[in-house]
Amino acid sequence: MRRYPRIRWLMIAFCFFAIAINYIDRINLAIAAPHIKQDLGLDDTSMGLILGAFFWTYALMQIPAGRLIDRLGARTGLAIAVGWWSLFTVFTAFGRGFTSIFASRLMLGLGESGGYPGCAKVVYSWFAKKERATASGIFDAGPRAGSAIALPLVAWLISVWDWETSFIVTGGLGLAWVAVWLVFYREPEEMKGLNEQERQNLLADRSVQTVDKNEKVRIGGLFRHRTVWGMMIGFFCMNFATYFFVTWFPTYLTMAHGFSLKELGTLGAIPALMGIPGSLLGGITSDWLYRKGFSLTTARKACLIGGMLLSSVIAFAAFTNSVPVILTLFSLTYAGLAFTAANIWTLPADVAPSASYVGTLGGIQNFAGNLAGIVTASFTGLMLTLSHGSFVVPLLVAGGICVFGALNFMFIMGKIEPLPIKKTETVGPVLPADHKI
Description:
Elements: H1 8-40, H2 44-60, H3 62-72, H4 74-92, H5 98-112, H6 115-126, H7 132-139, H8 142-160, H9 163-184, H10 196-204, E1 215-217, H11 219-222, H12 226-247, H13 249-257, H14 261-266, H15 270-291, H16 296-311, H17 323-344, H18 347-351, H19 358-386, H20 392-412, E2 426-429
Antiparallel strand pairs: 1-2
Helix pairs in contact: 1-2, 1-6, 1-7, 1-8, 1-9, 2-5, 2-19, 3-4, 3-19, 4-5, 4-6, 4-9, 6-7, 6-19, 7-15, 7-17, 8-9, 8-15, 12-17, 12-19, 12-20, 15-16, 15-17, 16-17, 16-20
């Protein structure tokens, strides 16, 4: 059995904490929203726009951020991304009206756009194909951990101090992460002290490249592939439900079911906690199927489809007022979404035509996925205004889109393999893939 550097688990642990902080910095606004509304005199429509502002820049910058990660490398790229979003999390504390908070959230999204493509790049660099889903499951457990931590942490900070303090503290977490990351992270080719045979095993097990490293693939050429569209549509469907948790879930619990701030920080954290084993199990299951002899396509798609179908139970929350039943349904939904996400984030490394396009493909699918954040935040706010506070329509729509996502992975997304790039989709020789700016 081939052996690989054990330090790879430390590298993916860094990614776990980066994405956990990423989600703490996203969700703190959702938790603080009722207090900000009251303090600054904002209505539901304005709050919906603020909650959705992050997703505009986050989605639009995904492809440029992915390309930048591929050029700069994960070490520099992630340090810039985490440092940027952490600073603008802190700046949110000084917002005194709609415009200033809206602008801070736009800038937050700009920085966070590099988070996931950077982590996908780390998975490609440090993990063989048979371990990638497990590694992706570990870093993608970060959102669930971040969501679970954010609820009690931010609720406590607000209750003891105020909503402004919550943004200063959570922003500081990211700045501390950057300092530690820059000290420890290196690519396998550059890491000193590795067993040379383990290093070579890892480098040999990376994906087969379908383009020469000195050829540049046209970004438009990537969109000609059915698999890329399946990745994009599937991620949109998954994130439509996921971002209900990120934006309106705390408000849903307080408005529809009368949760206090204390209950929000305890009972409200249960669904997010269930997402952690869901993410880990999704990655482990996919890699286990692949090692047992199933094709990579079967191993990945079985988990993608199963996770999306499970997450569709969110729709049933529209038909009950029982808090235990609602928490159970949302826990199953979150676990299903996490199970799916662990496999979605293996796809950029699985299908990239070369190492120079892992971050780019991660950015492409995350661009489509985060258009859902804009739609979910704004659509839910609009429905609340039109229905005088009812969450029935948003919950039903989220469940239906989850089912559509499963059908997409089944019928639209193609074979999971490095994209077969044609000569017409390249633009000839460019700087080598390992060139550093």
